[in-house]
Amino acid sequence: MITQDFTSQTKELIDNLKGVCASFGLGNDGNEFKIITQVFLYKFMNDKFGYEVKELDSKLKNAENWEKEIAKYNDSEYEMLLLRLNPDSAKLKREHYLSHLWNNQNKEEFAKFFDDTFRDIAIFNNEIFSVKTGTGSKITLFDELSNYITDSSQRDNFCRALIDKLVNFSFEKIFSQKFDFFSTIFEYLIKDYNKDGGGKYAEYYTPHAVAKIMASILVDKPVNNVTCYDPSAGSGTLLMNLAHIIGEDRCTIYSQDISQKSSSMLRLNLILNNLVHSIQNIIQGNTLLSPYHKVSNNLMTFDYIVSNPPFKLDFSDYVADLDTKQNNERFFAGVPNVPNKDKDKMSIYLLFIQHIMFSLTPKGRAAIVVPTGFITAQSGIEKKIRERLVESKMLRGVVSMPSNIFATTGTNVSILFIDKTNTKGDIVLMDASKLGTKVKEGKNQKTVLSLEEEQTIIDTFNKHEAVEDFTVIVSYEDIKTKNYSFSAGQYFDVKIEYTDISPAEFEAKMTGFKTNLDKLFAESSDLEIEIKKQLAGLKYE
User: Tell me, what DSSP letter sits at residue 398?
Assistant: First the structure.
């Protein structure tokens, strides 16, 4: 009950912050995202700091007002308290507290005071919470938010209005909640800002059903001290589901994405889900052109990789830089052609698949969302990649998903599972395209899987069960005989039912077939006559 109540209260807080932005002319503004997420994060960190220091000192926990009690600390005592905090926790000075901002609202130039507080928190915690760019620069935690109000005379009121929405709400009772709660809150927080709007590595959003299936099939047994990677991380939905299945304290996250907005979303996601220790591994940069994560100048390899890469976009500016001798091994199947007319239809996902294959440890596993056309293409880079997966004995299976599983695209998708230890070739090919229920989401139609259907996909795959018209278990040799097709349907047995009937029944069926054919021919003839009449009646204007 607490979780349900706090979910609605937290969503109400987010709505209130959006209401403030709208009142000051920033509704649907490009900067609204930064304001909402950063103010939300400040409140979250402020409350978590209070929660954690009270756990460290019983006097604070038992005090009627812990902030009045902590004010009695001298500077050295306060510094010692900060040193005792979890290394992944935000450290706040006393002047950073929300109550300090609240008590100084009548201060002249309050907006500057507000921004200075946020900036000082960011600087004070720079080593923990900064996201790096591919060149090594650091993107700090907070911006100067009041500057997004163009009318400088309204900045003080804007900042006061934001603070006013924070004071009557507390996160403290929900810090014991786990992934499911915070994933719901995170999704609600970014839902208006995580659109597939095009551009390089746009913020592609993966439905939780798909993310859960990928993680649950990838990690089918307990593991510890493993590395997880997404080369096109977006807001981190895939990585968060993977970390949740493994255990947030048993894995380290690595990512790269060219979008600053996506990197900011992922940082927020990591903070909410107790994965602050991995923020240093979030990189904003071009994965294909300049992969960041390296060991001794060699690309780093990972135990688990998840990815929902952009399928098609204009990458023509970088083709010459990608198609080099240095990249021959990484892009073994080649670089996709740039279409003459529609450059934005370059099949960029093929480079991501190759990069992922190259980036796996000797026992590594990967799950990649691909267009379903990839699994049957009879030539080109697609087939070369499939051949390598089979010849190198690193294919675990494929799940073909229902159409419209992504509300933002009509492209049919499949999930490609790679496992470098699957040398025996016990491969699962699954056709889940008939599952799900069609629903309307805005102007788009979307297919939604029930929890039972999600679990059926996971359990059937992990148990390697062959189910009629659903799954087939094949060997590498079987796949070679089918021209390296990964489509389950091409391996299903064709079933012919035989029924004994009498000569009279046979004659009656044949007569019925002939009658139906005669009727169809007659109807088509009538239609042809009608079309000719209408054409004859047309006149040039």
Answer: E
Please report, for residues 304, 430, 498, 508, 516, the alpha-carbon distance to residue 501 in angstroms, rounded to integers and kept in the order given.
Answer: 58, 37, 10, 11, 21
Given a cut of 50, whether residue 304 has pLDDT beyond it is yes
The residue that leads in pLDDT, 184 or 240, is 240
* Mean pLDDT value across residues 523-528: 61
Structure confidence at residue 201 as a pLDDT band (50, 70, 90): very low
DSSP 275-303: -GGGGGGEEES-TTTS---EETTEEP-EE
Q: What is the predicted pLDDT for the residue at 539?
A: 46
Q: Are 43 and 98 in contact (CB under 8 A)?
A: yes
Distances (CA, A) of 536 to 250, 366, 506, 519, 529: 77, 63, 46, 26, 11
* Ranges of H-type helices in 65-178: 66-70, 75-84, 98-103, 110-124, 126-129, 155-166
- Is the pLDDT score of 306 beyond 80? yes
Q: Which has more confidence, 220 or 442?
A: 220
Taking CA atoms, 22 is separated from 11, 16, 144, 164, in Å, by 16, 10, 18, 15
Q: Which residues contact 300 (CB under 8 A, 6 or more apart)?
A: 227, 254, 293, 294, 359
In CATH, what is the architecture of 188-489?
3-Layer(aba) Sandwich (3.40)
Q: What are phi and psi of 368, to 5 degrees?
A: -130, 130
Q: Binning pLDDT at 50, 70 and 90, where does residue 534 land? A: low
Strand, helix or coil for residue 338: coil
pTM: 0.86
CA distances from 57 to 84, 85, 414 (A): 10, 11, 52
Paired with 370 in beta bridges are 414
444/348 Cα distance (integer angstroms)? 25
Whole-angstrom Cα distance, residue 437 to residue 432?
12
pLDDT digits (tens, 9 = 90+) for 96-106: 999 999 999 99
Q: Which helix (H) or strand (E) holds 40?
A: helix 32-56
- H helices of 92-221, in order, are 98-103, 110-124, 126-129, 155-166, 179-190, 208-218
With tokens 């756990």, the residue in question is 55
CATH topology of domain 2-177: Ferritin (1.20.1260)
Identify whether the C-beta of residue 391 lies closer than 8 Å to the C-beta of residue 423.
no
Cβ neighbors of 502 (< 8 A, separation 6 or more) are: none
* Beta-bridge partner residues of 295: 298
Q: Residue 392: count other Cβ atoms within 10 Å of its Cβ.
A: 13
- In this prediction, residue 444 has a pLDDT band, given cuts at 50, 70 and 90, of confident
Q: Which pLDDT score is estimated for 205? A: 65
pLDDT for position 524: 64
Distance CA 336, CA 334 (A): 6
